[in-house]
Amino acid sequence: MAAERKTKLSKNLLRMKFMQRGLDSETKKQLEEEEKKIIGEEHWYLDLPALTEKESFIIEEQSFLLCEDLLYGRMSFRGFNPEVEKLMLQMNAKNKAEVVEDKTEEVDVSDEEMARRYETLVGTIGKKFAKKRDRANYEEDENGDVKLIKAKKMFLKPQD
Amino acid sequence: MAEAAAVAAESLAGGRARAARTVLNQVVLPGEELLLPEQEDAEGPGGGGERPLRLNAGARSRVRVVCGPGLRRCGDRLLVTKCGRLRHKEPGSGSGGGVYWVDSQQKRYVPVKGDHVIGIVTAKSGDIFKVDVGGSEPASLSYLAFEGATKRNRPNVQVGDLIYGQFVVANKDMEPEMVCIDSCGRANGMGVIGHDGLLFKVTLGLIRKLLAPDCEIIQEVGKLYPLEIVFGMNGRIWVKAKTIQQTLILANILEACEHMTTDQRKQIFSRLAES
């Protein structure tokens, strides 16, 4: 009786979601296969052998720039157009970057002089950023340099 | 030279590919096939197969080779498309087969991406300029492709102005496109060139000769008097000096340089220095 009723149910009905729970595994598989077949028939594909992409070892390049190290195309000589002359140096320097780097930069101010100068600056700038209360601690010496006078605040023992 | 051409013609008639290494600095002809060093090794010196080897050996280690102007890749074969001398540059660093190209003489310019050229503005239409660069088709130049240009602030470019710019799009299927700024948005000398001065045309080979890093002509010219030159890779040269006479002398020297020997040139320069 039960088996007869099962056969009566149409396939479309069995495919519905709420019907899936009650189905046994065999009918489930059958339905799934049929579904795949339908999708497979609808799916189009090109009937061609698989493309094998070969990696090319020859690279095409139509520019002479890469072949010959050509200079920058704008030039100016003997100060006719100072702007272009500056640009020439800059653009053509790219080729000779290593040569330029080798040159050691000439120093205007020696390190020692720099240190001496900054030594006095510490006080001047320090005063600028100090709070009003601390400003009294800075004092100018005979050279006009500002220096911090350390006066540590501490408790004084009260006299009896 | 004639001898080299004869050899080239002979090999072409024979229909067999020559090894690129053996024809360096020799004349090659369009249609000829070249073999890269790896390919010739595989073929062997007296190999029965006269045909060039196609890449079917699979796991053979190969180096990357750049083929420059005048050469074309066709599958794994290297074909010559221009007539001239075959040149080779060793790779700058690391591995690689370097660069091969054909040093040819021609007058017709074919736009190439990245080339700096001198163009003449021929039309203003909407938001682009049409620029004649000597190619088969005028190049387009957007009004926004200038330094400091915005939709509100248009560059002052009139029809007939000379433009020094760079190609960003240049291929055989599309209209070439120029810009007057680099990738950072700076002009770097590109844009409208001054309104006076003299523009003339020379062969493309001469431009490359003059722009070579160790070109004696330019060094000698620079010593003459204050002057300014702009070289376009499309064969156009723009010159300007203090007087019209000086400008004309300069133009004539540069034009004549192509067919002068070093001695002849030195004579002329010494004569100029006296006057």
UniProtKB/TrEMBL annotation, chain A:
Domain of life: Eukaryota
GO terms under biological process: maturation of 5.8S rRNA
Matching InterPro entries: MPP6 (IPR019324)
One GO CC annotation: nucleolus
Transmembrane segments: none
Protein's recorded name: M-phase phosphoprotein 6
Organism: Microcebus murinus (Gray mouse lemur)
Lineage summary: Eukaryota, Metazoa, Chordata, Craniata, Vertebrata
TrEMBL record, chain B:
Entry keywords, A to Z: Acetylation, Cytoplasm, Exosome, Isopeptide bond, Nucleus, RNA-binding, rRNA processing, Ubl conjugation
One Pfam family this sequence matches: RRP40_S1
UniProt-listed InterPro entries: Exosome_RNA_bind1/RRP40/RRP4 (IPR026699), KH_dom_type_1 (IPR004088), KH_dom_type_1_sf (IPR036612), NA-bd_OB-fold (IPR012340), RRP40_KH-I (IPR049469), RRP40_N (IPR048541), Rrp40_S1 (IPR037319)
A GO cellular component entry from the record: cytoplasmic exosome (RNase complex)
UniProt keyword annotation of Iron-sulfur present: no
GO BP terms: CUT catabolic process; DNA deamination; exonucleolytic trimming to generate mature 3'-end of 5.8S rRNA from tricistronic rRNA transcript (SSU-rRNA, 5.8S rRNA, LSU-rRNA); isotype switching; mRNA catabolic process; nuclear polyadenylation-dependent rRNA catabolic process; poly(A)-dependent snoRNA 3'-end processing; positive regulation of isotype switching
Location of the protein in the cell: Cytoplasm; Nucleus, Nucleolus
Family per similarity comment: Belongs to the RRP40 family.
Protein name stated in the entry: Exosome complex component RRP40
Species classification: Eukaryota, Metazoa, Chordata, Craniata, Vertebrata
